[in-house]
Design brief:
The complex is a heterodimer of chains A (546) and B (451). With 546 residues, chain A is α/β, with parallel strands linked by helices. Helices cover 31% and strands 18% of the residues of chain A. The chains are: A alpha/beta (546), B mainly alpha (451).
Chain lengths: 546, 451
């Protein structure tokens, strides 16, 4: 890189010198100012060149003596990353760092804080087959309404993968089987026991057992449902060995839970989970570490063994595993990688340590419409209304399982999605705003400099669900690029999805994306286009085409 | 007050099925007054406060100074030609009102015709009125000569909106810049109204071979006179005054094409050209005000700075080139084009509408290249080709309109190759990655700065 830069500087310098000389000889029609300008540029370039050469010599010298130029501050000219990339904190000393310039942190009121409480009032939990992407819409049930189950008991399987069990995270009685469009099963509701009972498995020793045994145990015990596969974000096919496994240890989405809270007390389980994963792939387990803060992330992450670690610094979506994959070892062609969240790794670790499916997880109850945003410990699929009971400021709100960008809207009678560890509550925005497009009367998050927001980067907002405008054709072309820290052209991908140009979609990298990666683009979209929906449509097309 | 207005709007809402055109117009005005109360459905739950209306209106706001100055300059040029009120602030009320009488009909007709077409198509296609014409409608009056007949203007706008935009599917789908399309229509269909020496100064009539006189002031001017007279201010009077000796209605570019820089400075000083006290299209003449608008667009990120910067680069490079090949000395027989070529490159900034075209026309996000790389190339060629047309084209001593429309056509091709490069880069990276896996090299501790 540096040598190319040097060459460019040298060539340019020579060119300008030649230009300047020729201008002097024929200079009659030109003016003196022009010549002086060129002479000035040439002089600057000449000295720039001298410094550059000197800089390079220092670099070579340092290399021969095995001195890290960056470390020792030996360079005469600061590199691009020193000028624009921002400073990397000291704790990243030994791991590689990726600094992302693009992105945007949406700062919202209502961040969860404090100690993790046990969610006591929740009685109903649901397993929702649509949470597991890639299954047939009507799975084969193995329990009936009225049956009593223990945590870890199989409740359904998919007809394409009959040996993969989907299990219940809680013990209790199956009380409802809710169906959606085309009679697809959407919720299997379980009335939980006061005291949880677990089905016990004979877990293999993950350090010595062969891969086959580990795989079979995961399929039988529900561990398989913790995995997701990229591309497509589906439940992985057991017959395909992943190239790598990626775990992002932090979440940069608005109001996302702090992973230090999640992992506190679960360090051993996390390490066990990583060890299991390392047995499942021929490649590596990659941990994406949080390089944004002043202090190092928890030791459970930074000192995890059996995994390759990389720090990421930047703004949202830097915590998205898709972005981290893109900057570590991108997916493409026939590559398949698996991804897990921190909580899934912990559950997997416990499964192998204790031989039971203990899916309890920390969930952040967040949002400006909550009286006390806080953390609770509960199980996947907890009832939304029961989780939030007595904690709402008012009724006219939206319940979101997940974050405000890529989460799913729920009713108070709905249930938290399986992989989500965040429940966000924000105001509904069904009001008219007079000349709202011209004069913003209420503060709102935006990346646009036509609002005064850019002057106050630290202000937190109480966002609502108003669309702030109507849907239009794609007009503005540089909005997505400001927030997309990947080498893709989101707008062009969306357009090729809309015209069903499969070759172009794949060529431009649709396989590297899932909904959450374009969620921020959708947020900033001036034309209010539904990018996540379009992307999913494209991914489904790709998947059908095989 | 807000409540009352909302109630009023609800009461007058026409039936959508019975009168679609009326409902469309109603909807357009309603969404103009109030941002709709729609909430997000699927996908993201919160949306950025920015929408297309706001994007467009930012451009319109950036153009306002040009409207003010353009109005003044119409009157100023008119009275200058007559040798009256030559001071900048002398009889400023006459100049402004004279300009208003000229510019208001153009503005009103532009919007009536343009929005009429938009409303009609929106009703016919059953979608909301899109705000594309907000900007086109603000730009078109600024790039017309002050005396443009309103019927020509109307035809040009109908042509631009129907053929240029609606035929392609409406706002966001057009290939060519709508405002420039309206102008290029006038340029090719009614060339005598938009090129040559006699069109750039309002209200000057030819009364014989080489003899010009000011227009007669009647009608509205009479009414204005009675008001001004009451205040004891200067009045328009009768009119029909002969123009001053040595008058030229030519723009600096027109002069430069004939006699080079010497011919330009004979009539206009450099500072007049910079501040905009020269004949030309209504809104393009004042460079500082255009640059203020451009700066506003850059700061709000509504227009892309890459296009502007690379257009300047292309402009300067091409300017240096034509300077380089220009002859050193001129005889009396030397053709005007050689003298034009010898105009120092930096003086080209003072003449014509380069800044206006660069800031407001080239950066149109719909018709420009959409990728960052593409924008550099696109802008560069606009600057480069535009100057070639300006200097070397004998028929029309200004190049931006044609250069931008030309590059509009090429923008999709530029983007295509940028995308192809991305596809190739991606494929190559995958191969390299696979190779690295085979060699199984351990990851080294490096710091990467990425996008």
């Amino acid at each position: 890189m540096k040598s190319i830069l040097n060459k460019a500087v040298l060539t340019l310098g020579t060119l300008f010198m030649a230009f300047e000389l020729s201008a002097q000889t024929e200079g009659a029609s030109g003016s003196n100012i022009f010549i002086y300008t060129l002479v000035g540029i040439a002089v600057i370039l000449f000295f720039g060149m001298l410094i550059n050469v000197a800089d390079n010599l220092i670099g070579i010298e340092a290399k021969q003596n095995n001195i890290d130029v960056e470390e020792g501050g030996l360079a005469l000219i600061p590199g691009f990353k020193h000028l624009f990339g921002g400073k990397v904190a000291d704790y990243t000393a030994n791991a590689p760092v990726t600094i992302l310039r693009r992105g945007h942190d949406i700062l919202l009121e209502g961040e969860a804080s404090g100690a993790v409480k046990v969610a006591s009032g929740v009685t109903r939990y649901a397993v929702q087959p649509p949470n597991f992407r890639g299954l047939q819409p009507i799975p084969k049930m193995t329990v009936e309404v009225g049956a009593s189950v223990k945590a870890g008991d199989q409740i359904f399987f998919d007809k394409q993968m009959p040996d993969v069990a989907f299990v219940t995270p809680v013990s209790g009685e199956v009380i409802e089987l809710n169906r959606g469009a085309k009679r697809a099963i959407t919720e299997i509701v379980i009335l939980a026991d006061k005291k949880q009972e677990y089905r016990t498995f004979n877990q293999p020793d993950y350090k010595t057992a062969d891969r086959e045994t580990i795989l079979n145990f995961m399929k039988e015990s529900g561990g398989w449902s913790l995995l997701r596969q990229r591309p497509y974000n589906t439940i992985p096919n057991p017959e395909v060995t992943p190239r790598d496994i990626f775990v992002s240890t932090f979440d940069s989405a608005p109001l996302a839970p702090d992973s230090a809270v999640i992992v506190a007390g679960q360090e051993a389980a996390f390490q066990a989970g990583i060890d299991v994963l390392a047995r499942l792939t021929d490649g590596q387990v990659h941990l994406g570490l949080d390089g944004r803060g002043e202090t190092a992330p928890p030791a459970a992450f930074t000192e995890a063994s059996n995994a390759s670690k990389r720090y990421f610094k930047g703004k949202h979506p830097v915590g998205n595993v898709g972005v981290q994959i893109h900057h570590t070892a991108p997916v493409g062609g026939n590559d398949v990688v698996w991804v897990l969240g921190v909580q899934e790794v912990i559950t997997l670790g416990k499964l192998f340590q204790e031989g039971r499916f203990d899916a309890s997880r920390v969930v952040a109850l967040a949002g400006a419409e909550l009286q006390i945003p806080h953390y609770v410990r509960t199980y996947p699929g907890a009832n939304v209304g029961e989780l939030l009971k007595g904690n709402l400021k008012q009724d006219h709100v939206r319940y979101i399982s997940g974050d405000v960008l890529s989460g799913e809207q729920k009713t108070p009678n709905g249930y938290l999605n399986f992989y989500d560890d965040q429940l966000t509550v924000i105001k509904e925005g069904d009001y008219y705003e007079m000349f709202g497009w011209l004069l913003p009367l209420s503060p709102r998050p935006t990346i646009s400099n036509t609002f005064p927001n850019f002057l106050f980067p630290k202000v937190k907002f109480e966002a609502d669900t108003n669309t702030h405008g109507e849907k239009r054709a794609f007009v503005v072309t540089n909005a997505y690029e400001q927030v997309m820290p990947m080498d893709v052209y989101p707008q062009q991908i969306m357009k090729s999805i809309l015209v069903n140009d499969i070759e172009r979609m794949e060529g431009l990298g649709i396989l590297e994306l899932v909904e959450e990666d374009v969620a921020l683009c959708e947020f900033v979209c001036v034309s209010k286009q539904p990018l996540q929906q379009i992307l999913r449509q494209g991914l489904e097309t790709m998947r059908e085409q095989g | 007050m807000k409540k009352a207005l909302l109630n009023f709007f609800e009461r007058i809402e026409p039936d959508k099925a019975k009168s679609p055109l009326l409902h469309t117009a109603y909807d357009a005005f309603f969404t103009f007054a109030f941002t709709p109360n729609t909430v997000t459905a699927k996908g993201v739950h919160i949306r950025d406060g920015m929408d297309l209306k706001r994007t467009m209106v930012t451009v319109v706001v950036a153009l306002q100074l040009l409207y003010v100055f353009g109005t003044y300059n119409i009157g100023n040029q008119h009275f200058h030609a007559l040798g009256m009120y030559t001071g900048t602030f002398e009889a400023i009320h006459l100049k402004i009102f004279y300009g208003l009488v000229k510019i208001l009909p153009i503005f009103v007709v532009t919007h009536l015709v343009g929005l009429g077409v938009e409303f009609y198509y929106a009703a016919k296609k059953g979608h909301a009125v899109e705000e594309g014409f907000l900007v086109s409608g603000a730009l078109i009056p600024l790039i017309m000569p002050p005396d443009i007949p309103l019927w020509i203007l109307s035809i040009a706008i109908i042509f631009a909106v129907v053929i240029g935009k609606e035929a392609f599917g409406g706002t966001g789908m057009n290939i060519l810049n709508i405002a420039l399309l309206a102008r290029v229509f006038v340029f090719f269909a009614y060339p005598t109204y938009i090129s040559g020496d006699e069109v750039w100064i309002a209200g000057i009539e030819k009364v014989g071979a080489g003899a010009y006189a000011g227009q007669e002031y009647g009608g509205i001017y009479g009414i204005l006179d009675s008001i001004f007279g009451a205040f004891g201010w200067a009045t328009f009077g009768e009119g029909k005054q002969a123009v001053v000796d040595g008058f030229t209605g030519a723009t600096p570019l027109g002069l430069a094409a004939k006699g080079g820089w010497a011919a330009v400075t004979e009539h206009y000083s450099v500072s007049d050209m910079w501040w905009g006290h020269i004949p030309g299209s209504i809104g393009e003449t004042s460079k500082p005000l255009v640059l203020i608008g451009a700066l506003m667009l850059i700061l709000t990120k509504v227009a892309d700075w890459r296009i502007m910067v690379s257009a300047v680069v292309g402009f300067v490079l091409c300017g240096l080139m034509v300077n380089g090949i220009a002859p050193d000395t001129f005889g009396p027989e030397t053709a005007g084009v050689f003298k034009f070529m010898a105009v120092p490159w930096y003086y080209h900034f003072y003449m014509g509408s380069f800044f206006f075209a660069m800031a407001f026309m080239a950066t149109d996000p719909v018709t420009a290249a959409s990728t960052a790389t593409g924008k550099w190339i696109y802008g560069f060629f606009i600057g480069f080709i535009g100057l070639i047309i300006r200097v070397l084209n004998p028929a029309y001593p200004e190049g931006w309109m044609l250069a931008i429309l030309f590059m509009n056509v090429f923008a999709p091709l530029i983007d295509h190759y940028v995308f192809e490069a991305n596809v190739k880069r991606r494929a190559k990276r995958q191969v390299a990655l696979a190779k690295a896996r085979v060699e199984a090299a351990p990851a080294s501790a490096t710091t990467v700065t990425a996008e």
